[in-house]
Specification:
mainly alpha; elongated; 129 residues; 6 helices
């Protein structure tokens, strides 16, 4: 309803500015738009007032259950599984140590970014933008 009210007023304004209509319909359309905007705003406020306590509950459950630690452990296990075939190569104590550290670090960071931890962090961050 809100979007159609905006479209209607835009058409009325175009018609008015091209001298194809009187001011009365523009004024009436604008009044309807203001009513639709108020209803739209009230609907959003109502939805937010209902959602806000649920967001708080969700965050407290995430914190209380230590979810981020559990999710990051699962993601680290996933990185370990991906690196396990290269274990012999990565575990040598020689010139490859730096590249091994880099490979392990990169795999763990990628797993955290793209895994359950990163996904959950992005979803929660969306709530607070």
């Amino acid at each position: 309803r809100y979007a159609s009210s905006i479209s209607n007023v835009a058409l009325l304004l175009h018609s008015y500015t091209s001298c194809a209509s009187e001011y009365g319909p523009v004024h009436e359309g604008f009044s309807q738009l203001m009513k639709a905007e108020e209803a739209h705003r009230n609907g959003l406020l109502h939805a937010w007032s209902k959602a806000l306590p649920l967001v708080g509950l969700l965050v407290s459950k995430v914190v209380d259950s230590d979810a981020f630690a559990k999710l990051s452990l699962e993601d680290a296990k996933s990185a370990y599984a991906a690196l396990k075939p290269r274990a012999e190569e990565l575990c040598h104590d020689d010139a490859t140590a730096i590249s091994a550290i880099s490979a392990v670090s990169g795999a763990v960071n990628q797993s955290l970014r793209e895994g359950f931890f990163g996904q959950t962090e992005r979803q929660l961050a969306t709530l607070f933008k």
